[in-house]
Amino acid sequence: xxxxxxxxxxxxxxxxxxxxxxxxxxxxxxxxxxxxxxxxxxxxxxxxxxxxxxxxxxxxxxxxxxxxxxxxxxxxxxxxxxxxxxxxxxxxxxxxxxxxxxxxxxxxxxxxxxxxxxxxxxxxxxxxxxxxxxxxxxxxxxxxxxxxxxxxxxxxxxxxxxxxxxxxxxxxxxxxxxxxxxxxxxxxxxxxxxxxxxxxxxxxxxxxxxxxxxxxxxxxxxxxx
Length: 225
Fold this sequence. Notes:
It is a single chain. This protein is α+β, with helices and mostly antiparallel strands. It has one domain. Helix content is 19%, strand content 35%. Strand 10 (156-162) and strand 11 form a beta hairpin.
């Protein structure tokens, strides 16, 4: 009997006004997972109301025992703008953005569970962005994971590799994907139970499943030789 060892990725379209669905997905991710990469940005309504410290945010990283206040990145000068510490500390304003880099990984002060709670709260008041949750890694390779969950709240560019047996290394195709949730699982590293809670939420909310092969291409395929 053969055992299926191919990695599996399933994709689900997010509906409009999907914050409750996203929160449910985040809360379904087991606390035994490891870290979060990504970023969130405040909605325009909060910025316009004056509740937000403009061009100022927080960064959560693996080796930081507390979030760091940072300024926004300026593309024109390729440098970080000065953070508005007064608005954050004295006026208690919300950050305009929050950045996560391996947040929650091996951190006893800001755990993965705490990171999930923070993200859940931010999404509840309207923050949006892209988030990638990871269950761990193997062979000291960051992206060699038993499972992953991506939450993309806007249209975004994605890519996939096309290979034909006996035709070299194949090619890379870039495509435009809708707001969506992607769930990745590698059966080499254990049971599919690790992603079942996420899939159950997607099914309970009747999210439409789609295949990357059906997405429109944004560039000509890049031949890898």
